[in-house]
Amino acid sequence: MTSATARPLPAEWRDFFALTKPRVMTLVIFTGLCGLLAAPGHIHPVLGFTAILCIALGAGGAATLNQWWEAGIDAGMKRTAGRPIPSGRMAPTNARDFGIALSVASVLIMGLGIGWLAATILLVSILYYAVVYTIWLKPRTPQNIVIGGGAGAFPPMIGWVAVTGHVTLMPVLLFAIIFMWTPPHFWALALFIKSDYAKVGIPMMPVVRGQASTRKQILAYTVLLVPIAGAPWFIGETGAIYGVTALALSLLFLALSLPVAFRRSEDGDAMKPEKRLFAFSIIYLFALFAALVVDRIAAHQGIFA
Fold first, then answer.
1. In the predicted model, what is the mean pLDDT of residues 245-268?
2. Per-residue pLDDT for 89 more than 70?
3. Is there a contact between 214 and 188 (Cβ–Cβ < 8 Å)?
4. What is the dihedral of CA 149, 155, 160, 162, to 10 degrees?
5. Contact at 8 Å (CB) between 95 and 22?
């Protein structure tokens, strides 16, 4: 990790907020909340809010540590050069201390207020992203996002455990859905920003293995995602609302991945199939987990019973 500037300008609260990657955190909070709401049992609203707050703080802390470590890399990429550290608005040490404080606070509050199993999983998720993915995997292997995808897959499991106090097959399946969703989601993005990664020496799949291989793997992971997304319904943990929604969304995801997978040209039309797939992949995860909650509410109300 290298400092982008020697004399940073005074940071504002917006810069600290930007370090937490609020756009990414939105998805993290949402899937964590869905895991909490879909879990069997009951949690006091204050404790539920505390659990989601801890998930948000932990995700923000991990994202901050990621930006602290990668400040030099971010400075060399057009997409990230405007972040607080490489732009010179914040000292790297301030970002590091902020990230550590958020991470420690999130785990301690989760453990003391909710339970130590949820806190332990939260700690694992923070270390997974900040250390395993950021420091070890990302600069070393084109499989970085495949293995590192586990970091973003923990929130619904944490939300579920916050309510139930234990890990069962269902939260593992929720973890698996996000784990399998991450490669096609991220590689669709990497295909149209691969020059940025190439410039800073990050071995993302399109840079190291080429576009053709990346496109085939996008399709492969999408095919695997279809049955995994439907698994909660297949095993009887959800009802028809989730099952039909998961099937429809997953088939559409698969349909959008086909033109990406079989595209031969590497330029022209502004990478429209890749951008469509990337945009839909975000909608896909939001809609899938929303359907999980709606299905659970319908079951509680006796709808379709």
1. 87
2. yes
3. no
4. 140
5. no
Question: What confidence tens digit (pLDDT) does each residue in 190-235 have?
Answer: 888 777 777 788 888 888 888 888 999 999 999 999 999 999 999 9
Q: What is the pLDDT of residue 10?
A: 66
pLDDT in tens, 103-153: 999 999 999 999 999 999 999 999 999 999 899 888 888 878 887 778 889
Whether 288 and 229 have beta carbons less than 8 Å apart is answered as: yes
Return d(Cα 39, Cα 101) in angstroms, integer. 29
- The residues, ordered by sequence, that sit 6+ positions from 65 with a Cβ below 8 Å of its Cβ are 96, 99, 100, 103, 130, 134
Query: What residue type is assigned to position 266 of the chain?
Result: E
Closest CA to 3 of 101, 70, 48, 54: 70
pTM of the predicted model as reported, rounded to 2 decimal places: 0.90
* Count of other CB atoms within 10 angstroms of residue 201: 10
Q: What is the DSSP string of 102-165?
A: HHHHHHHHHHHHT-HHHHHHHHHHHHIIIIIIIIIITTT-TTHHHHHGGGGGSHHHHHHHHHHS
Interatomic CA distance for residues 185 and 10, integer angstroms = 36
All domains of the chain, ordered by start, with CATH?
14-167 (1.10.357.140), 168-300 (1.20.120)
